[in-house]
Specification:
This protein has 252 residues and is of the alpha/beta class. It has ten helices and eight strands. It starts with a strand and ends with a helix. The structure holds 2-phosphoglycolic acid.
C-alpha cells in the first residue's frame, strides 16, 4: 500500500443525497497519484451509494465503526461481513468520539481490531491523549497503554494491515492542531514502541496525524518523515479543502 494516506472522516454529516454530491465533487477535482491513498468514511447509510459511485476509482471506502460480532441479536449494530460486502477496505476503530462519547473501552477496541482483521478489513486504529494527560506529562504513558491494549494478541505480520492514527483529543474539532514537532515526537515514540513490542520494521507502519488538519497546515505536517498522512474531520466535508490536503501529501 502507498506509504501516504489521507482519510476523510465524515462523522455524522451528509444525508445520502449530500454524500453523493460530495463524492462526485471530490472525483471531479482529484487527480489520483500513486504515492497517496485517498479514503473516505461516510456514515453507514451513505456507504452503498458512495461505494457504488467510487466503483473502480482508486479512492477507497472506510466505515466509521463496526461491531466485533459476525451476526446475532445486536440491535443497531453493523457487522464486519456486512461492511466487507459493501466494498469497504478500511474501518476506523477507537476514534476518540467513540471512546469518550459512547464509552468504548480498550477491550472493545481490541475485539473490533481482531474482528476487522479476521474479515479482511484494515483497521485505522485511533489513539490519543486528552489535554489533562498532556498537561500531566502522561502523553506517552497513555499512548503506550492504548497501543498495548488495543493491539493485544495481534501478530506482527498483521500490523502491516493496520494504519495508526495519532489524534490528540485536544486537537480534534478545536482548530488547534498539534505542531509538527509535537506530532513528530509522538509518532516517533509510537514507532519505537511498536518496534520493541512487536519486533518489526516499524518504519513501514503507516502513522497518520489527526486533529484540526486543514489545507493550510497539512503541507507543514507532511514535511515530517514521521507523519504518513492525515485523518481529517471538518476539512474533509468540503471537496476543495479535502483534495488540497491530498495534493499536499503527494511525494515523488
Ligand atoms: P477534525 O477531526 O479534523 O475536525 O479535528 C479529526 C477527527 O476527528 O478525526
Amino acid at each position: 500500500m502507498p506509504n501516504r494516506c489521507i482519510v476523510g472522516n465524515w462523522k455524522m454529516h451528509k444525508t445520502i443525497s449530500q454524500a453523493k454530491s460530495l463524492i462526485c465533487d471530490i472525483l471531479s477535482k482529484y487527480q489520483a497519484h500513486p504515492s497517496v491513498e485517498l479514503v473516505v468514511a461516510p456514515p453507514y447509510v451513505a456507504l452503498p451509494s458512495v461505494a457504488h459511485l467510487l466503483g473502480p476509482t482508486p479512492i477507497k471506502c472506510a466505515a466509521q465503526n463496526l461491531c466485533a460480532k459476525d451476526e446475532g441479536a445486536f440491535t443497531g449494530e453493523v457487522s464486519p461481513p456486512m461492511l466487507q460486502e459493501l466494498g469497504c477496505h478500511y474501518v476506523i476503530i477507537g476514534h476518540s468520539e467513540r471512546r469518550h462519547l459512547f464509552g468504548e473501552t480498550d477491550q472493545d477496541i481490541n475485539e473490533k481490531i481482531h474482528a476487522a482483521l479476521h474479515h479482511g478489513l484494515q483497521p485505522i486504529f485511533c489513539i490519543g491523549e486528552r489535554l489533562a494527560d498532556r498537561e500531566a506529562d502522561q502523553t506517552h504513558t497513555v499512548i503506550q497503554h492504548q497501543l498495548q491494549t488495543g493491539l493485544a494478541g495481534v501478530a506482527g505480520k498483521d500490523l502491516d494491515n493496520i494504519t495508526i492514527a495519532y489524534e490528540p483529543v485536544w486537537a480534534i474539532g478545536t482548530g488547534k492542531a498539534a505542531t509538527v514537532e509535537e506530532a513528530t515526537e509522538v509518532h516517533t515514540a509510537i514507532r519505537s514502541f511498536l518496534k520493541v513490542h512487536w519486533s518489526l520494521n516499524a518504519e513501514q507502519i503507516r502513522i497518520l496525524y489527526g486533529g484540526s488538519v486543514t489545507a493550510d497546515n497539512a503541507q507543514a505536517l507532511f514535511q515530517s518523515p514521521q507523519i504518513n498522512g492525515a485523518l481529517v474531520g471538518k476539512a474533509c466535508l468540503n471537496s476543495e479543502s479535502f483534495v488540497k490536503i491530498a495534493e499536499h501529501a503527494i511525494s515523488d
